[in-house]
């Protein structure tokens, strides 16, 4: 079931793909972009990771952290996504524990829609290192959550197809917004 903003984060404690512990609540004081991807070999996912990688340095100067969650194993994420240097944290969640707690959806229709209408993104994804592979979670639909400095989810994005992430313009508006204080800290959508 989808969650709605504004609301407090749903905390998790896992190791990243290199074995380093990460706990979402410990990032309070930073803006966090929490991205859920289908799998590490997915062309759509690899293209989006490429986009995030090239923006991260500027975002980091603005006190922003990115956490990318994949339904693949640590080894698969290191092989497909981690073979190129990624400046942000990546988490493997093959049991879908974090996915389920954030209401990330599965949809055959969303998969077909992406394959029919997003062919150029598939080619861009293949060019950046992804390629279709057998994955039991192939029908996962991407989702993104924008978390403010107070540890509250300010905006939720549930993809309309298996290539659909929050628009970069909307993401940048959230990053550029001033820190929230008082009642505003619970979260206002960055439209």
Mean pLDDT value = 86
Relative helix content: 25-40%
Q: Give the overall silhouette.
A: globular
Strand order of the largest sheet: 1-8-7-4-5-6
User: Which residue ranges are poorly predicted, with pLDDT under 50 across at least 5 consecutive positions?
Assistant: 185-191
Strand content: 15-25%
Number of strands: 8
Order of helices and strands: EEEEHEHEHHHEEH
Terminal Cα separation, in Å? 22 Å
Structural class: alpha/beta
Provide the descriptors you would attach to this structure in a database record.
single chain, 8 strands, six-stranded mixed β-sheet, 191 residues, 6 helices
Structure description:
The strands form 2 sheets. This protein has a 6-stranded mixed β-sheet with strand order 1-8-7-4-5-6, with helices on one face. The protein has 191 residues and is an alpha/beta fold. It is globular, with a radius of gyration of 16 Å. The protein is built from 6 helices and 8 strands. Helix 1 crosses helix 5 (119-127).
Topology of this protein?
Blueprint (H helix, E strand, L loop, with lengths): L6 E2 L4 E3 L5 E3 L7 E6 L6 H19 L2 E7 L3 H7 L8 E4 L4 H5 L6 H10 L1 H9 L15 E5 L4 E7 L9 H9 L15
Parallel strand pairs: 4-5, 5-6
Antiparallel strand pairs: 1-8, 2-3, 4-7, 7-8
Helix pairs in contact: 1-5
Concise synopsis of the structure shown:
By secondary structure, this protein is of the alpha/beta class. 31% of the residues lie in helices and 19% in strands.
């Amino acid at each position: 079931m989808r969650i709605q903003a504004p609301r407090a984060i749903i905390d998790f404690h896992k190791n990243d793909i290199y074995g380093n512990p990460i706990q979402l609540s410990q990032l309070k004081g930073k803006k966090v972009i929490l991205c859920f991807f289908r799998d590490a070999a997915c062309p759509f996912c690899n293209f989006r990771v490429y986009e995030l990688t090239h923006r991260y340095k500027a975002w980091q100067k603005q006190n922003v952290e990115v956490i990318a969650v994949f339904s693949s194993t640590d080894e698969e994420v290191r092989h497909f996504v981690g073979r190129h240097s990624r400046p942000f944290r990546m988490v493997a969640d093959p049991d879908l524990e974090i996915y389920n707690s954030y209401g990330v959806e599965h949809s055959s229709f969303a998969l077909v829609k992406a394959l029919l209408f997003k062919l150029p993104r598939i080619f861009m994804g293949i060019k950046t290192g992804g390629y279709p592979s057998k994955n039991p979670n192939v029908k996962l639909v991407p989702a993104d959550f924008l978390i403010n400095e107070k540890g509250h989810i300010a905006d939720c994005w549930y993809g309309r197809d298996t290539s659909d992430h929050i628009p970069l313009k909307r993401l940048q508006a959230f990053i550029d917004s001033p820190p929230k204080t008082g009642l505003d800290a619970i979260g206002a959508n960055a439209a």
